[in-house]
């Protein structure tokens, strides 16, 4: 039994090593177009930024280490140029010698990944991308050159995860960085009000963020924007997104998905029963709807690689739909998300309940607590968790991971209320931020409280609803939502005569507003609370 | 509708405030025996250690703040001395004036907590305990006095969570600390081999740990041990455990559980339909078996307090059994656990699969990775997760919280393999430590690998099994399992003639051993892997 694997990084190498563990006698050949296998893709931006200083640290395995431990025949600089499905063989070109040869297979695994998209604009060839070790060496040299120039500047096209990571790392290398993003926000896996927190943080660290703009031309030391402006740019990076490498599969007549990836079943099998595919090149199934999705993430690539080996070895396994849990850090801020955003749920026609909170990562009375903003998107009909997002400092990763696990376990939003999470004052709170999301979800589900979202506020005010800031006079004086009068929550019962029949209350983060709304509702008012309070509205 | 609540800290105060939120017209009286309500119990050790320097930070709410915001009648220094169930009233004694009065109720909530146990030994009255603000002030003064003495020493009776926290905090204040623990290990929620890691860490920071010993007498400046030895002790602390405060309930004829707490149903209702109870004084249901359990933790106390208010307000809710997720930190090491230990599962007659791993909290190629030791206890019959433990640095809390959530969601151990957890190199790994536990669980479930536990090794060797250390010669030379020969994993295929028919392999953490065992099994050997490798065996 001979398995040929095209692509020797996350998914491909997971398949190769698992297959050896399952079958000592299997013949395994890995063909990698670039000069390295099993390298640390996700670490590349940090090598550029000198956070990782040892280039060898990026090379997790080498062809010789894989040969010694796993008996795998790994060939780098080896491009597969075609697949002959009838003959069950591939044509390989050695990029070192130019030599071409056939390699036959019993099973073929496609793990070619996805290629950074470079927009077809004049001068685009100067735009650098970051996919493999070769790209990294090239970018590192370019950064060295730019950093020693008179006015080191960088323009990053695209404000996704890689763009934001590179913005940090290029800044740390002394470059003045501008991110140019076509959408009206950074980081598409977040909703706009959470992405805004990242934007502000980047700005505080000297990164300029231009949204709703694109680069239309790359010049020798500048770029031209869709706005007509010109920006200096010693360095230009394309981090707009990636496109599945489907060329080989398409040429071989394999079925593709509607959005362009290689189509596979739950065994990662393509439309040819002898050919499997994994990783960024394939279509995945969305965990919320089961629909096709492109989710270029390391986790699913690795797991699906392992699974393909199981399938080839005859084990009964099936891949699961993906949530797309992801995280990014920059200048000490962390942004993470799992499942769906509000905008995506609304676009799909779902009726949603949305919850914003601004908790601390651990008990406030213990020194060093760091703040975060959390958002939970809940199916209004079923109380199912559709997705969650978090932006802040320490502990964001933990809360998103807990919620992702709850989603995998089929827990509802209200079920989050009684999760038992580890608590000592330096690690959490007796009512953890995730429990609090559950409490609020339950209150919303049961109609104990009614909230208004930040983006609904203007329409409500236009209808003439009364807006009351229930914080202290001091907080009110430092800035409030436009149009609010001030009645502190502790004075509310004594000042009911100042409160109209239809009222919208707000506080700093939503908690006092909730209390106020409960009190007022029981005194005959229609009282709604501004979800997430002043902080969500003002995006601070 | 009038509700009287006895006890104004976690469970009692959660009940009081939730009840106000649900019912603006409810009459709510909170009677607290000590001088403070709603204080930060879990912060008290850190005030002793000057980590929390502002005493007011411990006081989350005061009677006047609760009056202003919630209209709750909070009375401190107010001890309830009896309950008249027929008359539905309690007798209250003011500890300030000595005055006694009746307070009638429609619903009564018992949240009296649990009292630190002080052993009945000579001189025990000098032993300090830490339960409330009064105790804290007393201990803080005693520490100040001891710290300024010529040879500041402290003996802590009991090596549970509070004992370990106090050991850190008293050491930070300059005291030479000894923990005296009757059991053969610290931290009962951990198994012995993980607790040993905490013991070693404490020793490295100057704390002496004596297990299998107890204090038999407390002298003026020393203690006598069960071993006959005498230890100097400027300060003596009793942190042996707590006992549910059931006196009032018992005197009122309420039913108690077999292990001593107040018996309640899933609505936290006692055997008297008008009386509820929550918190450390009550019996809880164990999430694994549904049996009665005493679980004195802040999380369940707070959640059950909230639930009691719901029940009193007529809402349809029910409490869930508890896992007992808990965490403790000391001198930078973290120990956390959820569910059952191996020793508990074995004592209960369960057949278990046990997994030890020693992962890093994030990708090793990114600077600053910290190590941890994880243990998963799995029901061998069903693949259900019975419990998990972790000891190490950053990220232990996250992994235990994720596993606790998986247990709540009914996921099996093998299901952990495909959890989608947030990954970027500074936060985790593409195959997170929790995923790795799932991979191993699946391999064990499917019979792909067979492991031997550290405590089974001697018996296996006595049977004549061959023991092979598959690490490098350098690692082997620095220390190996007694009796092992060395064949590095990468040389195994070439040196098969040196391998007998029944072999036990080990490496450093278990991964190379797994590879070796897979290879050997496919070459006709019975090959088992030492679970957790040299590190679990040597407890390093």
Topology-level CATH name of the largest domain in chain A: FAD/NAD(P)-binding domain
What's the story with the biggest beta sheet of chain A?
Answer: 5 strands, parallel
Number of domains of chain A: 4
Biggest interface and its residues per chain?
Answer: A-B, 88 and 88 residues
Unreliably modeled segments of chain A: none
Backbone structural class of chain A:
alpha/beta
The oligomeric status of these chains comes to: homodimer
What secondary-structure arrangement, pairings included, does this model have?
The structure is a homodimer of 540-residue chains.
Chain A: E1 2-6, H1 10-22, E2 27-31, H2 44-48, H3 63-70, E3 73-75, E4 78-84, E5 89-94, E6 100-104, E7 107-110, E8 114-116, H4 133-147, E9 153-157, H5 161-172, E10 176-181, H6 192-204, E11 208-211, E12 215-218, E13 222-225, E14 230-232, E15 235-238, E16 242-244, H7 247-251, E17 275-277, E18 284-285, E19 292-293, H8 298-312, E20 326-330, E21 333-339, H9 342-347, E22 352-357, E23 372-379, E24 385-392, H10 396-408, H11 433-445, E25 451-452, H12 457-462, E26 466-469, H13 473-477, E27 485-486, E28 502-506, H14 511-521, E29 526-530, H15 533-538
Parallel strand pairs in A: 1-2, 1-7, 2-3, 7-17, 9-10, 9-15, 10-11, 25-29, 26-27, 26-28, 28-29
Antiparallel strand pairs in A: 4-5, 5-6, 8-16, 12-13, 13-14, 18-19, 20-21, 21-24, 22-23, 23-24
Explained architecture:
The structure is a homodimer of 540-residue chains. Chain A is an alpha/beta fold and 540 residues long. The first copy, chain A, has four domains: 2-113 and 243-312, FAD/NAD(P)-binding domain (3-Layer(bba) Sandwich), CATH 3.50.50.60; 124-240, FAD/NAD(P)-binding domain; 332-445, FAD/NAD(P)-binding domain (3-Layer(bba) Sandwich); 451-538, Rhodanese-like domain (Oxidized Rhodanese, domain 1, 3-Layer(aba) Sandwich). Chain A has a five-stranded parallel beta sheet with strand order 3-2-1-7-17. A five-stranded antiparallel beta sheet of chain A has the order 20-21-24-23-22, sandwiched between helices. In chain A, strand 1, helix 1 and strand 2 form a beta-alpha-beta unit. The longest helix of chain A is centred in the N-terminal third of the chain and has 15 residues, at 133-147. The mean pLDDT of chain A is 96. At the A-B interface, helix 1, helix 3, helix 8, strand 20 and strand 21 of A face helix 1, helix 3, helix 8, strand 20 and strand 21 of B. Chains A, B: Residues 461-539 form the Rhodanese domain. Chains A, B: Keywords: FAD, Flavoprotein, Oxidoreductase, Redox-active center. Chains A, B: InterPro entries: FAD-bd_OxRdtase, FAD/NAD-bd_sf, FAD/NAD-binding_dom, FAD/NAD-linked_Rdtase_dimer_sf, Pyr_nucl-diS_OxRdtase_dimer, Rhodanese-like_dom, Rhodanese-like_dom_sf. Chains A, B: One of its GO terms (molecular function) is oxidoreductase activity.
């Amino acid at each position: 039994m001979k398995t040929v694997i095209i692509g020797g990084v996350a998914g491909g190498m997971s398949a190769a090593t698992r297959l050896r563990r399952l079958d000592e006698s299997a013949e395994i050949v890995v063909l990698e177009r670039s000069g390295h296998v099993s390298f640390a893709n996700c670490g590349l931006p940090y090598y550029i930024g000198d956070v990782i200083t040892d280039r060898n640290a990026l090379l997790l395995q080498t062809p010789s280490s894989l040969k010694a431990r796993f008996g795998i025949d790994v060939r780098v600089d080896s491009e597969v140029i075609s697949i002959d499905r009838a003959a069950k063989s591939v044509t390989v070109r050695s990029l070192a010698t130019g030599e071409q040869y056939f390699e036959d297979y019993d099973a073929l695994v496609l793990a070619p990944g996805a290629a950074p998209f470079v927009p077809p604009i004049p001068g685009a060839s100067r735009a650098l991308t970051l996919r493999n070790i070769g790209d990294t060496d090239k970018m590192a040299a370019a950064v060295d050159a730019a950093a020693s120039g008179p006015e080191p500047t960088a323009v990053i096209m695209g404000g996704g995860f890689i763009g934001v990571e590179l913005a940090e790392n290029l800044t740390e290398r002394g470059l003045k960085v501008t991110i140019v993003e076509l959408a009206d926000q950074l980081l598409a896996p977040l909703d706009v009000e959470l992405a805004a927190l990242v934007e502000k943080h980047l700005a505080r660290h000297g990164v300029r963020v231009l949204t709703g703009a694109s680069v239309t031309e790359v010049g020798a030391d500048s770029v031209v924007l869709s706005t007509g402006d010109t920006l200096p740019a010693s360095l230009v990076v394309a981090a707009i997104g990636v496109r599945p490498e489907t060329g080989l599969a398409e040429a071989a007549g394999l079925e593709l998905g509607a959005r362009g990836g290689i189509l596979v079943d739950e065994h990662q099998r393509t439309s040819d029963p002898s050919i499997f595919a994994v990783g960024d090149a394939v279509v995945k199934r969305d965990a919320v709807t089961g629909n096709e999705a492109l989710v270029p993430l390391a986790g699913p690539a690795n797991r699906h690689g392992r699974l393909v080996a199981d399938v080839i070895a005859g084990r009964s396994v099936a891949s699961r739909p993906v949530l797309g849990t992801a995280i990014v850090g920059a200048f000490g801020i962390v942004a993470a998300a799992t499942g769906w955003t509000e905008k995506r749920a609304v676009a799909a026609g779902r009726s949603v309940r949305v919850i914003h909170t601004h908790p601390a990562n651990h008990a406030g009375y213990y020194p060093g607590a760091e703040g975060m903003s959390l958002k939970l998107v809940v199916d209004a009909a079923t109380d199912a968790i559709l997705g969650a997002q978090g932006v802040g400092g320490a502990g964001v990763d933990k809360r998103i991971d807990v919620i992702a696990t709850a989603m995998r376990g089929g827990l509802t939003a209200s079920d989050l209320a009684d999760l038992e999470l580890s608590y000592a004052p330096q690690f959490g709170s007796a009512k953890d931020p995730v429990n609090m999301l559950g409490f609020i979800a339950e209150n919303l589900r049961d109609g104990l409280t009614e909230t208004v979202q930040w983006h609904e506020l203007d329409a409500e005010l236009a209808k003439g609803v009364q807006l009351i800031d229930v914080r202290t006079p001091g907080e009110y004086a430092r800035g409030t939502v436009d149009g609010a009068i001030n009645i502190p929550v502790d004075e509310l019962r004594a000042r009911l005569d100042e409160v109209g029949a239809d009222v919208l209350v707000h506080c700093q983060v939503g908690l006092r507003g909730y209390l106020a709304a409960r009190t007022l509702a029981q005194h005959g008012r229609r009282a709604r609370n501004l979800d997430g309070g002043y902080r969500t509205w003002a995006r601070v």
